[in-house]
Every structure is written in C-alpha cells, then in structure tokens.
Design a protein that fits this description.
The complex is a heterodimer of chains A (106) and B (413). Chain A has three helices and five strands. Chain A is of the alpha+beta class and 106 residues long. Chain A is globular and about 35 Å long. Chain A starts with a strand and ends in a 6-residue tail after the last strand. Chain B is an alpha+beta fold and 413 residues long. Chain B has a single domain, classed as Cytochrome p450 (Orthogonal Bundle), CATH 1.10.630.10. In chain B, the strands form four sheets. Chain B has a five-stranded mixed β-sheet. In chain B, strands 4-12-9 form a three-stranded antiparallel β-sheet. In chain B, helix 5 runs parallel beside helix 16 and helix 9 packs across helix 11. Classes of the chains: A alpha+beta (106), B alpha+beta (413). The structure holds protoporphyrin IX containing FE and FE2/S2 (inorganic) cluster (FES).
Chain lengths: 106, 413
C-alpha cells in the first residue's frame, strides 16, 4: 500500500495508507482527511478537490488534461503545481507522495 | 394566476407532447410526474413545439454532468435560458459566454467570493441577520418572503457591493427587472420598463466606481474589480460592466431568496427533520446543502449545440437548444438515494446539481451556503418553530423556482 501524505493549510499533516487504483481524492475522503470537498464525486466537474503536488512528484503524477486545466483555471489560488485530486490515480509508484491542500475549496 | 387553465396529465399524453417549458407547471408545483416520466422513458427528450420553440430536455444526473462539462460542444452563447433574449439591449454576462472570454472575466470577479473574503464578511452579514430576526413579530402571521427572504438577500447584496445602504432596494428592483423579463422568468416586465432601469443601474455604478477609485482598502466587489488589471477599465466597456454587475446581482438574489423560503417550507413538510435539527444544530451545514438541492433555485440552464452530436442515442443537430433540468437531476434516484425526500443529515449532501458543473459552475456557491448557514444558526437561537400557516404562492417561471408568499408564525424558544 503506497503511503501518501496530505498537508492541510494549517500545517496539520495526514499520512494515509492509500489504495492503488483509486483516485487520490477518493483515498483522502475514505481516510477522513479534511480539506477536500469533492462536490462532484470525482467527475472533474467542480474543482473542489484542488491540491498542490510537491515539486518532486510532478512528473510521477502526470499532467492535467484539457478539462482539468479548464477547471483549474477557475481557481483563484491556482499555482503551477495545482492538480485536481480526483484526476490523480494512486499507484505503487506514488509511494511517498506529498501534497498540500489549499486554504479553501470553492 | 392562470390556476384555472388545467395542465395536461403527464402520464396520459403522448411522450412527444410533453412540454416542460410551461411555467405553470412550476407555479402549481406539478412538475414531479413530468420529470419522473422523462427520466424513465425519454431521458434525452425532444419537444418540437413550445412557446420558446423546439428544445431538448436532459433530465438524468449523469447526462446533465456530461453536457455541463462539455463546453466545446454545448455552448453557453447566445443565452442560458430556454427563451432567447431580446436584442434591444444586450447585456454581456460571462455566464452566457464561452472560453476564452468567459474565463478572463470570471477570473477577475471570482476572488470577490472566495472563502477568505467571505470570512471577513461573515460578522457583518451575521449582524444584519440578527437585526432582521430580532425585529420580527412573534405569534403573528406575516409573509416570510417579504420580511425575511427578500429583506435579507437585499442587505447581503448591499454588503457585497458596499452599496449605499439606504438605497439598497434599488438592487432588488434592478435584479427583478433584469431577470423578470417574460422570456426568462415568465414574468411581466416589458422592455419599456427594463431599459431605463438598466441605464439607471449603469449610471449609479459608474458614479460609485469613480467615487471609490484609488481607495486601497476594502474587499467589496467594486474595489476588487478596480484592482484587477483585466477589469480596471471595465466602465469603458459599458455593456460588459453592466453585465458583470447584473450577473452578480441576479446570481445572488433570486437563488438565495428562494432557498431561504424553501428551507422553512421543507422543514415544515418534514417535521421529523425539524426535530433532528432542534436536537443538533451541528447539522446546519449539511442541511444547507440539502435545502439547496431540494429547492433547486435555478431549475435549468440551457446550452446550444455547436455541432451535430449524439446523446443517449438521440441525434442532436447543430444549433439545437439543449436544456439541462437541474430540478430533475436532483431527483434522480440513480445518483441520489431517496431523492424525493428531504433528509438533513445525508451522507453526501453536496452531491447535487443545483450549482451546475464545469466551467460555469456557480461562482457564488460558498457565499450562498454561508448566508444560509448563518441564517439558520441565528433562527435556531431564537425560535423553536417557524410555523407555516398557509399555502405557499409560487412564481410562474420555468427558470427561477421561487415563492411570492409564505405565511408563517414564529414561536419563541
Ligand atoms: C443557493 C444559491 C445559488 C444557486 C442555487 C446558484 C445556482 C447557479 C447555477 C445553476 C449557475 C450556472 C451553473 C452552470 O451553468 O453550470 C450559477 C452560476 C453563477 N452564479 Fe450562482 N447560484 C447561487 C448563488 C449565487 C450567489 C450568492 C452569487 C453571487 C456572487 C452567484 C453568482 C453566480 C455567477 C457569477 C455565476 C456564473 C458563473 C459562470 O458562468 O462562470 N450565485 N449559479
Ligand atoms: S471531485 Fe469534483 S473536480 Fe474533483
């Protein structure tokens, strides 16, 4: 089981035993990590699973497709390492992944 | 109004004769069997003949998400309601624009309603909520819509724009005029009234804009638009300026107003839920989402197909109107358990379509939720029961699902 660390805006961190094959968003929700709303349930349609992938992991987590890009474009706090957690599929290769959560989801 | 004209029975007429654009269906609260049949028998349904011309109806949750997120094929131009706008005065709102124009304008306006900003507004909004609630008569019958829903929503709008407080009723008037044109709300505002009203709105905001220029504190909408380089010269493009203002005024007006009324009605129709709330005020945030789902303040959004496209086996042609019925998506059992029931402690209350999805997803969603949360926190501190004591009167519209009257009586704690 890949271990993934999510850091809330307050600095509080949560290391979870993630399940490969599921999205990062789903893993965070299943483990009760606060700070991800996921209003649309993972359809890349709401933008409320916004997260920031740490620099070292950008390559391994892949790139946002056009729809994800469009949704990210609407976030006022969008950064270069912004991703939607529902569009990152967890695999064993992501063991050790660290992501930061934003101050708010909207 | 028009109660005498009977609606057709949705279960006995031929499928192709079903026309859900008739505002009386919602005025009479008769929509449930219409959409139940469409979801079941024709989830992508063509109405060849309506007062607004032919249109497709998309009624299942999953299909609504698919259309809403496919802005390449389903355009928001020229209009996002079933009826086309009249062209005498085209106000440019980004809700009815496609990328890239939409994205630029939305990005400029969005920070205004970001949660950081909202946190700064919370105490002001709360004090206004308290003042309104403290002045309500206990034990007397009054119209909740006028005294609370409209009053409160108007004050919230004034707060958002830092609009001269004594003149705030103008905001509601402009919103009603802009949104109440017959083609949108099925209301009776005509062009003769509409154009001068919108001109007055533009002039007023031009004046405020110039008065406020150079002021560097403040987090109101005008100040934020002035600070952003993309919008700092907005008044030079009057129709766009007016469009952005109207969108924020209209967007936050009918929607919040009718959610405030809808919540009271829903709790009265479901006394066991009201009891749950009385014993645990911690349920308020989830209940707010459930109220917004149950009410579905905007019943539809329309798109126009930019190319021929197939959806659930139906051939949609370029130029066809495609209407996403959020009201129906929110009652779709395949996406939401016990979708017809009002349940304030649902497992996943934010999973609804009332705010739409995709790049046009409601920009004010967290603001709307916050307003309702504060209101219910303060109601529960004061009253044991907001009792509905008469029949609600509803708006005749196929777009805004709303109320004009809800008689209530307050019971002290
Ligand atoms: C319960 C309250 C509200 C409901 C149900 C609601 C509903 C909606 C819906 C259905 C859309 C279109 C979504 C789509 O096409 O996919 C929308 C867009 C929008 N709403 Fe709201 N709204 C609410 C409150 C507000 C408030 C308080 C504001 C004030 C700032 C607001 C501002 C907007 C704006 C600016 C848009 C256009 C977004 C775009 O086109 O990118 N809304 N809203
Ligand atoms: S959960 Fe909605 S975009 Fe990721």
């Amino acid at each position: 089981m890949p271990k993934i660390t999510l850091i809330e805006f307050s600095g509080q961190d949560h290391t979870i035993d993630a399940e490969a094959g599921k999205s990062l968003m789903q893993n965070a929700i299943d483990n009760g990590v606060p700070g991800i709303d996921a209003d649309c349930g993972g359809a890349c349609a709401c933008g409320t699973c916004h997260c920031f992938v740490s620099e070292d992991w950008l390559a391994a987590t892949g790139e946002a497709d056009a729809m994800e890009e469009a949704m990210l474009g609407m976030r006022p706090d969008r950064a270069d390492n912004s991703r939607l957690a529902c569009q990152i599929e967890v695999s064993d290769e992501l063991d050790g992944l660290v992501v930061n959560l934003p101050e708010f989801q909207m | 109004m028009n109660q005498a004209i009977e609606l057709p029975d949705p279960n006995s007429i031929p499928l192709e004769q079903i026309d859900v654009s008739d505002g009386r269906i919602y005025q009479q609260d008769a929509w449930r069997p219409f959409f139940a049949r469409l979801r079941e028998e024709a989830p992508v349904h063509y109405c060849a003949d309506s007062a607004f011309g032919p249109f497709w109806s998309v009624t299942r949750f999953e299909d609504i998400v698919a259309v809403d997120t496919n802005h390449e094929v389903f355009s928001s131009e020229p209009a996002i309601v079933i009826g086309d706008m009249t062209e005498e005065m085209e106000v440019e709102m980004f809700i009815a624009m496609d990328p890239p124009k939409h994205d630029v304008q939305r990005r400029a306006a969005q920070p205004v309603v970001a949660p950081q900003n909202l946190a700064q507004m919370e105490s002001l909004i709360r004090s206004r909520v308290c003042a309104i609630l403290d002045n309500l008569p206990v034990g007397e019958t009054f119209n909740w819509v006028d005294e609370v829903s409209i009053n409160l929503t108007t004050q919230m709008l004034a707060t958002l724009f830092d609009f001269p407080f004594e003149e705030r009723s103008k905001l509601t008037y402009w919103s009603d005029v802009a949104a109440g044109s017959p083609e949108i709300a099925g209301g009776d505002v005509d062009q003769e009234e509409r154009i001068p009203a919108l001109m007055e709105c533009l002039e007023t905001f031009n004046r405020i804009w110039h008065e406020r220029k150079g002021r560097d504190e403040g987090f109101d909408l005008i100040t934020l638009l002035q600070r952003d380089p993309h919008t700092a010269d907005l008044p030079d493009r009057p129709m766009e300026f007016l469009g952005n203002l109207m969108l924020l005024i209209v967007g936050g007006n009918d929607t919040t107003r009718n959610s405030i009324t809808g919540g009271v009605l829903a709790l009265n129709q479901n006394p066991a839920e009201y009891d749950k709330l009385r014993s645990d005020h911690g349920l308020i945030p989830g209940m707010v989402s459930e109220i917004i789902r149950w009410q579905t303040p905007l019943m539809h959004m329309r798109r126009t197909a930019k190319q021929d496209v197939e959806l659930r086996g139906q051939q949609i042609k370029q130029g066809d109107k495609v209407v996403m019925w959020y009201l129906s998506g929110n009652r779709d059992e395949s996406a939401i358990e016990n979708a017809d029931d009002f349940i304030i402690d649902r497992a996943n209350p934010r999973h609804h379509v009332s705010f739409g999805f995709g790049i046009h997803r409601c920009m004010g969603n967290r603001l709307g939720e916050m307003q309702l949360r504060i209101l219910w926190e303060e109601i529960m501190r004061r009253f044991s029961f907001v009792e509905v004591v008469g029949e609600p009167e509803r708006v005749r519209s196929n777009f805004v699902r709303g109320y004009t009257n809800l008689p209530v009586k307050l019971h002290a704690l």
